[in-house]
Amino acid sequence: MKRILTHFIAVALCALIFNSPVLAAKSPPVKNAVLPEIKLVIPLKHSDRSYLGLPASGFFKIPEIRARVVIIEIFSMYCPHCQGNAPKVNELYRMIEDSPNLKGKIKLIGIGAGNSSYEVEVFRKTYDVPFPLFADGDFTIHTILGEVRTPYFIGLKISDDGTHQVFYSKLGGVKETDQFLKMMLWLSGLE
Fold it and tell me: Which of 31, 94, 151, 177 shows the greatest Cβ crowding within 10 Å of its Cβ?
């Protein structure tokens, strides 16, 4: 009897642990879904705030970025693929910003999974990243996004009324910048 009770308690505890929304890992965002709520600190740099269309201080949610499309890169400064991919993502940013038809409509941000503010800044300076990067030192955002490997890209389409929808969610870097941009335009409906 004691053995059956012990077994029952063990099974019950396992069920509680693995079904707990706090302890169980979420899955990566899926196409046509809403992005899980993520709060980020508004950047201190005026240029980053201006680029994202945000007020001077506080917190914001990604769908509050003033753009029709937001491309999110989940990276780590320790990821060799992210390091090697940084020039391509920078090129993507420049292609968007240099296009009168795209500038202001598409914005890029990066979130450093497990990276402190210091580590994110080292990555920014080392790879001359021109778009806003955010720290996720305690893996909170990384967990919300399903503990994806890096680099991971999420495309988010934002409607005029503030609603939003994920149109892209995949592991892997930017191989051909122009092809990646064309794909983002087509999948988001901007083209």
Answer: 151
